[in-house]
Amino acid sequence: MREGLHPEYGPVVFRDRAADYAFLTRSTLSATTSGKTIEWEDGHTYPVVDVEISDVSHPFYTGTARVLDTAGRVERFERRYGKKG
């Protein structure tokens, strides 16, 4: 890689203020933070980025996939419109 072309990549804490939840990850946003820092659980100080929504505060995120009952749907269709054949 060429020097001076790519942004810095380092550890950053993303904090969801609405849910009082934070997680540590790596990002290029470490250089663009406004100087706010936070002391993390490991005792080190990291730059912090406040976010509006995360998986914890999003009202529609469940973390599980929905299972469709296709057998029940076919039976309901046959009951409603009659079995042809």
Notes on the structure:
It is elongated, with a radius of gyration of 24 Å. The mean pLDDT is 81. The chain has one domain. Helix content is 14%, strand content 28%. Strand 1 and strand 2 form a beta hairpin. The chain has 85 residues and is α+β, with helices and mostly antiparallel strands. Strands 2-1-4-3 form a four-stranded mixed β-sheet, with no helix packed on it. It holds the Pfam family Ribosomal_L31. This is Large ribosomal subunit protein bL31B. GO terms for molecular function: structural constituent of ribosome.
What is the total number of structural domains?
1
Helix content: 10-25%
Rg, nearest Å: 24 Å
SSE order in H/E notation? Answer: EEEEH
Low-confidence stretches: none
Strand percentage lies at 25-35%
Category by helix and strand content: alpha+beta
DSSP summary: helix tally: 1
**Strand arrangement across the biggest beta sheet:** 2-1-4-3
Largest β sheet strand count, sense and barrel closure = 4 strands, mixed
Shape designation: elongated
Mean pLDDT: 81
| CA(first)-CA(last) distance | 67 Å
Number of strand elements: 4
